[in-house]
């Protein structure tokens, strides 16, 4: 079946899904394969649950006219999304980077939705499956799509750009993330810059942090760029006024008091302001949108309990974001501070060195107490208290109740350190 024919069928459905648990009436189910599953086996179940069509790539599972065979389900999903994006033709803003992608995406969406009908990536559905599903969730009424793109290997952003064909783009930063897949920091820069390469090759507009030396160098010969910084030399001047603990920024005639902590969130907010102003959202509405946004899903959340003020930043971690979080925690004026840090994943051969660097940084900043948890942090040389596993940490916390009033919890998603809240608040 051609992509155009598949798209004709898709327009009669209520959307695309790849998980039978998310099937609603008249959806189109794509039977994707994984290392431990074969989606083809669930085609009949999808139809029984209400899917209008099921797309398979193994003929033996075609048991009715509503089960459609293609050569490759994943490729068909991606090509359908690419076709659909051109069919509905919204303005697409793509963003990638090592840190802050999801928060930045949500801030941009909050601002632009004040003026436009927007669709943004849900959660962190930012990979070779998530990006197509995001595009297929848009329709003719969508004016702007904000598409988050994640990657841990070279050529992934390039492929996602080919599917989404963005009109605008932004890279949050280049940090020490996914070093194992990218082969080092230079690989990270090259991989994330595939977004710039795509846009520059088509002379599309790039938004950039005019205080980031890497971005300045990458774009020095490119004219279609919109920069922001704290100086009047850039297109948009946005000034940090305070970050203790919440970030406050000044732009033109407004002061914006956000609900985000950490100076590292300054650029995330600033680019949302920049895009809002560029796309002619009023300053009043920009201010309203950003001040109404509250972080969730374990991202820089402040949780006030009876005994503690907890900064929960346990959604993810890499050396760059870890350093930024520690520096920010150190700058807060509150006294009696406890760090609880979990392992950083996907660092490959750099894992030992990077964990030791963070352990020494924590020690040098001289917090009241530091607790490290995970196999990599356990191997470090430090005076901090160390535990190999979460269960060991849990057992300690239940017996030795922290006396510090301020606690920063940060680690990679796989550590799931938010579980410690139950024991801190018990």
From TrEMBL:
<comment type="similarity">
    <text>Belongs to the MurCDEF family. MurF subfamily.</text>
</comment>
<dbReference type="Pfam" id="PF08245">
    <property type="entry name" value="Mur_ligase_M"/>
</dbReference>
<keyword id="KW-0131">Cell cycle</keyword>
<keyword id="KW-0067">ATP-binding</keyword>
<dbReference type="InterPro" id="IPR036615">
    <property type="entry name" value="Mur_ligase_C_dom_sf"/>
</dbReference>
<dbReference type="GO" id="GO:0009252">
    <property type="term" value="P:peptidoglycan biosynthetic process"/>
</dbReference>
<dbReference type="GO" id="GO:0005524">
    <property type="term" value="F:ATP binding"/>
</dbReference>
<dbReference type="InterPro" id="IPR004101">
    <property type="entry name" value="Mur_ligase_C"/>
</dbReference>
<keyword id="KW-0436">Ligase</keyword>
<keyword id="KW-0547">Nucleotide-binding</keyword>
<dbReference type="Pfam" id="PF01225">
    <property type="entry name" value="Mur_ligase"/>
</dbReference>
<keyword id="KW-0132">Cell division</keyword>
<protein>
    <recommendedName>
        <fullName>UDP-N-acetylmuramoyl-tripeptide--D-alanyl-D-alanine ligase</fullName>
        <ecNumber>6.3.2.10</ecNumber>
    </recommendedName>
</protein>
<keyword id="KW-0133">Cell shape</keyword>
<dbReference type="InterPro" id="IPR000713">
    <property type="entry name" value="Mur_ligase_N"/>
</dbReference>
<comment type="function">
    <text>Involved in cell wall formation. Catalyzes the final step in the synthesis of UDP-N-acetylmuramoyl-pentapeptide, the precursor of murein.</text>
</comment>
<dbReference type="InterPro" id="IPR005863">
    <property type="entry name" value="UDP-N-AcMur_synth"/>
</dbReference>
<feature type="binding site">
    <location>
        <begin position="97"/>
        <end position="103"/>
    </location>
    <ligand>
        <name>ATP</name>
    </ligand>
</feature>
<keyword id="KW-0961">Cell wall biogenesis/degradation</keyword>
<dbReference type="GO" id="GO:0051301">
    <property type="term" value="P:cell division"/>
</dbReference>
<comment type="pathway">
    <text>Cell wall biogenesis; peptidoglycan biosynthesis.</text>
</comment>
<dbReference type="GO" id="GO:0008766">
    <property type="term" value="F:UDP-N-acetylmuramoylalanyl-D-glutamyl-2,6-diaminopimelate-D-alanyl-D-alanine ligase activity"/>
</dbReference>
<dbReference type="InterPro" id="IPR013221">
    <property type="entry name" value="Mur_ligase_cen"/>
</dbReference>
<feature type="domain" description="Mur ligase N-terminal catalytic">
    <location>
        <begin position="18"/>
        <end position="68"/>
    </location>
</feature>
<dbReference type="GO" id="GO:0005737">
    <property type="term" value="C:cytoplasm"/>
</dbReference>
<dbReference type="GO" id="GO:0071555">
    <property type="term" value="P:cell wall organization"/>
</dbReference>
<dbReference type="GO" id="GO:0008360">
    <property type="term" value="P:regulation of cell shape"/>
</dbReference>
<keyword id="KW-0573">Peptidoglycan synthesis</keyword>
<dbReference type="InterPro" id="IPR035911">
    <property type="entry name" value="MurE/MurF_N"/>
</dbReference>
<feature type="domain" description="Mur ligase C-terminal">
    <location>
        <begin position="299"/>
        <end position="412"/>
    </location>
</feature>
<keyword id="KW-0963">Cytoplasm</keyword>
<dbReference type="InterPro" id="IPR036565">
    <property type="entry name" value="Mur-like_cat_sf"/>
</dbReference>
<dbReference type="Pfam" id="PF02875">
    <property type="entry name" value="Mur_ligase_C"/>
</dbReference>
<feature type="domain" description="Mur ligase central">
    <location>
        <begin position="96"/>
        <end position="275"/>
    </location>
</feature>
<dbReference type="InterPro" id="IPR051046">
    <property type="entry name" value="MurCDEF_CellWall_CoF430Synth"/>
</dbReference>
<dbReference type="GO" id="GO:0047480">
    <property type="term" value="F:UDP-N-acetylmuramoyl-tripeptide-D-alanyl-D-alanine ligase activity"/>
</dbReference>
């Amino acid at each position: 079946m051609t992509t155009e024919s598949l798209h004709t069928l898709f327009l009669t459905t209520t959307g695309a899904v790849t998980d039978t648990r998310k099937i609603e009436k008249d959806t189109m189910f794509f039977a994707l394969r994984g290392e431990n599953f074969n989606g083809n086996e669930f085609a009949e179940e999808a139809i029984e649950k209400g899917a209008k069509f099921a797309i398979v790539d193994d003929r033996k599972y075609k048991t009715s006219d509503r089960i459609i065979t293609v050569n490759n389900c994943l490729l068909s999903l991606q090509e359908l999304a690419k076709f659909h994006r051109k069919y509905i033709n919204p303005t697409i803003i793509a963003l990638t980077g090592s840190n802050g992608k999801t928060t930045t995406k949500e801030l941009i969406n909050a601002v632009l939705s004040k003026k436009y009908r927007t669709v943004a990536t849900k959660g962190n559905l930012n990979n070779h499956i998530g990006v197509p599903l995001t595009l297929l969730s848009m329709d003719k009424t969508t004016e702007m799509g904000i598409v988050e793109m994640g990657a841990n290997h070279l050529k992934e952003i390039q492929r996602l750009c080919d599917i989404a064909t963005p009109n605008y783009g932004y890279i949050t930063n280049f940090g020490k993330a996914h070093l194992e897949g990218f082969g080092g920091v230079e690989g990270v820069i090259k991989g994330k810059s595939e977004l710039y390469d795509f846009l520059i090759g088509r002379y599309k507009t790039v938004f950039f942090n005019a205080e980031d030396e890497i971005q300045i160098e990458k774009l020095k010969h490119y004219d279609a760029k919109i920069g922001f910084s704290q100086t009047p030399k850039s297109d948009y001047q946005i000034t940090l006024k305070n970050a203790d603990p919440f970030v406050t920024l000044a732009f033109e005639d407004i002061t914006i008091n956000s609900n985000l902590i950490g100076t590292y969130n300054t650029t995330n907010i600033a680019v949302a302001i920049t895009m809002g102003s560029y796309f002619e959202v009023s300053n009043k509405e920009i201010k309203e949108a950003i001040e109404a946004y509250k972080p969730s899903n374990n991202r820089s959340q402040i949780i006030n309990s009876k005994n503690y003020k907890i900064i929960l930043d346990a959604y993810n971690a890499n050396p760059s974001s870890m350093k930024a979080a520690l520096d920010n925690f150190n700058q807060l004026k509150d006294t009696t501070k406890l760090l609880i840090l979990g392992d950083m994943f996907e660092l490959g051969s750099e894992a030992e060195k990077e964990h030791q660097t963070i352990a020494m940084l924590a020690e040098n900043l001289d917090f009241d107490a530091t607790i490290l948890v995970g196999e990599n942090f356990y191997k470090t040389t430090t005076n901090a208290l160390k535990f190999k596993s979460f269960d060991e940490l849990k057992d300690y916390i239940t017996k030795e109740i922290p006396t510090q009033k301020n606690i920063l919890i940060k680690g990679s998603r796989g550590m799931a350190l938010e579980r410690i809240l139950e024991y801190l608040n018990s």
